[in-house]
Design a protein that fits this description.
Elements (H helix, E strand, L loop, with lengths): L7 E5 L5 E8 L2 E9 L1 H12 L3 E6 L2 H5 L4 H4 L5 E4 L4 H12 L7 E3 L3 H9 L3 E3 L5 H6 L4 E7 L11 E7 L5 E7 L1 H5 L6 E6 L7 E6 L16 E5 L2 E6 L3 H8 L6 E3 L15 H10 L8 E4 L18 H11 L20 H15 L4 E8 L2 E10 L5 E4 L2 H11 L7 H11 L1 H6 L13 H11 L22 E7 L20 H21 L7 E7 L7 H12 L4 E7 L12 E4 L5 H21 L6 E3 L22 H6 L4 E6 L27 H18 L2
Parallel strand pairs: 1-4, 1-6, 4-5, 6-7, 20-21, 20-22, 22-25, 23-24
Antiparallel strand pairs: 2-3, 8-10, 8-11, 9-10, 12-14, 12-15, 13-14, 16-19, 17-18, 18-21, 23-25
Helix pairs in contact: 10-16, 10-20, 12-13, 16-20, 18-20
Protein name: Peptidase M28 domain-containing protein
GO molecular function, one term: metalloexopeptidase activity
Pfam families: Peptidase_M28 (PF04389)
Amino acid sequence: MGKNRSRSVVFYLDQHFGAPRIQPHRKNMKMVGLDVLPHARENMMRLKEKGYDVFLASRSKVLKKSEQDLKHYLPHVDGLVLSQKSNEDLVKNCVQKIGKVDNDCLFVAADLVLRDLAAQNGFTALAHPALIRPYMEESELSFLRISGKNGEIPGSDALIPYFLERFADGSWRSYGVGTLQRYLTRVDENFEVQVLPLDISRKDPVLVKFDANKGVKKERLEGLKPLCIDGDKMLVAMGPSPDEAARSLVLGHGATQRLFPNPDLTSPPPQKRQALNAYQSAMRYWPHDRFKLKEIAHEIDLSRFVLRRAPATEYTIHQLVDRFSGQTDLDDDGPVISRHVLHPDNSRAVYAVKEELRSMGYCVHSHFFSYMGNTYSNITADLPGKGYFIIHPDILEKIRDLFIRYPLPDPVGPWLEQLRHIIGDEILKKMQFGKASGISEASAIELRHIIEERFCLRPWYPWWQKLCPLPGPGAGLVVVGCHVDSTASREPVYNPAVDSAPGADDDASGIAATLEIARYFSDFLRGKLTHTVRFCFFNAEEVGIVGSQAYAGWLKSWNAPVRAVICIDMIGYNSDAERIYEIHAGYTDPAVRDASVPIAETIANWSAAQGSLSPAQIYRGTNSGSGSDRTIYDGAINRSDHGSFHQQGYPAVVLSEDFFINLASEPAQDANPNYHKQLDTGIDNSYAADITCAIARAVQELAQ
């Protein structure tokens, strides 16, 4: 028997619920749609069918301006709660909207600060919409550590995972939310369950990695009560107070990962040909009498990759690193002091990245996420791939243009009549519209969503932005990324809200490299690559790899066809003549590692062809320890943004300078003594430029 629950639930519009479609409009931003994630939509509909009142809460200025349109995009929501003043005011408005609030009223938000405020006001706070179903149907939820030596990993119907590790020997370990009673009958010598004392409403779990070489020193953890210790990792509970948040920031480079519910962790990632297969499947239902397909020849002439100018030079890298690390003016307001997420200059750095990309002719997109009471954004820009076919006339472009002109799904008549002229009435009659028996019974929003899906207008690509060209049929994604933020957490006294954190190496070097590759591709490769190259600038990496986790989870939820991910994190420090650098492809799951190694080898091959760097040190290990044998160990596992993609099953690597321990037969490691310090103010620009060139040429090959 399920519990007798409240008839009200509040969803906060964040990375766990969905994202508004934003389009520039007369020097402002306008909402032209809303993509609700599958888990959120499923649970919202479940509640509505049971007679619950559903409210959507937001602090977005854009949503305030589009409040009247929201009912068209979310017809099942009973009300919108807004506040631009403060989180406290938003929760207060939610209480007033509902009336009497008790523990059976739900408040669903990824943001810990909001959940804590909601709990203080009588709500039961949940971190993810997927937690609603087990909360409604089961006994009390617990935060569990579950491990197995072999056998099937629990699916999201049994455990909502926050973190999942698969190991080379077939064993696995997961932290997540479930009910202890469900697992008591399964406990044996191959299966262990442990209840951890975590209040999921008012605490977030943070995974801390110890590393005798460069990671967290145990003495810095005094006062933090561990939930559990697994080898070189410790799980701790972090609350919403500024003191606890600040404490979590000083634990070391990439050594902390803030964990969030992610029900898609247990599902397999799309295969490499998924994008092409999806188009071929969709094309079966297209009006073949209204267009012609021409297959594009795909011949790779690797020699032409080296005929153009260098993708980056010492001068261009130097200019960008100095701008983003505060050595020269970033903009009209002067130099940046810090790019830390708690520092006001973080937003200046994000805006400067956008302006750089726009100046290159890119359509820039923001992916928003909530963290510790604030909203931040990852920045993306796409060089669309041409795909495998040319469609003439281009009915996809016609449908896209129609939906941009008619963003509101209701009234249906005006846009549906024009759609009939594009695809024909017979195609519409043959479509299946969910539970509706035909087009006349389907709701406006259901009709629009199904047509978008059928004609491959999917949320992982910002097709609703007029200036974003559509990728060709079957084009996958090759991601090139870095992180925007910085920290000086290794200083004896450091206040991230006001103190300097130049981060020239970590990671202005990555920002410069990613921008220079984007510039090169814009100048020379538009319309020439099969697959879309997506340039990503992740935020909040230094506070627990937060931004890339939100983004990788977003892509996985929409089944985005990610073929390869290359992250660039600290490629600037070089104090000797060896010019050694690292490519980390290792991961605890051998299948993910095996898919990642070819990316590393492609980069290494182009680096060798250049001849200006030492042979790449490729890490292929499945052990996250700090040993020197790169076939066994990879100390960068889950310690940078590539780990967010590994956890979703995507092939990914991260490049860095000579940071980790070398073999006894090799030169000593050349780690930056100023990393996470205020003296991180300069890099070896020539060295960083050479690594950037190798990455750029590898991306060309991977996107062919």
